[in-house]
Specification:
mainly beta; seven-stranded mixed β-sheet; four-stranded antiparallel β-sheet
Length: about 120
């Protein structure tokens, strides 16, 4: 059973940085894709960044390009989301999800809260 577990959320001021971690247990990620999603109060969950474990290819939603970076550590089976220049509109619960390919995520973490104050 693949199980992502997020950590690293918190309360920060606008302009600050945070790094989220997603440790994935249950199997080596080989050809999997791992994504970060977020859901703000009253809004639908949206994809933020995705990384292809095999070749490291990554994709970002336009609103975070240039500020967020997704990366992976093969040895630790962990994906990171480095978030710089945080804005109040980045406030949300951030979820990590893993699946066999881009766009299909069968395994989800419980989420970690990120709150950015102005």
């Amino acid at each position: 059973q693949v199980q992502p577990v997020e950590s690293g959320g918190g309360l920060v001021q606008a302009g600050a940085s945070l790094r989220l971690s997603c440790a994935v247990s249950g199997r080596t990620l080989g050809s999997f894709a791992v994504a970060w999603f977020r859901q703000a109060p009253g809004k639908e969950r949206e994809p933020v960044a995705v990384i292809n474990w095999n070749d490291g290819a990554s994709y970002y939603v336009d609103s975070v390009k240039g500020r967020f970076t997704i990366s992976r550590d093969n040895a630790k089976n962990t994906v990171y989301l480095q978030m710089n220049g945080l804005k109040p509109e980045d406030t949300a619960v951030y979820y990590c999800a893993a699946g066999p390919r881009f766009g299909r995520y069968d395994n989800w973490g419980q989420g970690t809260q990120v709150t950015v104050s102005s």
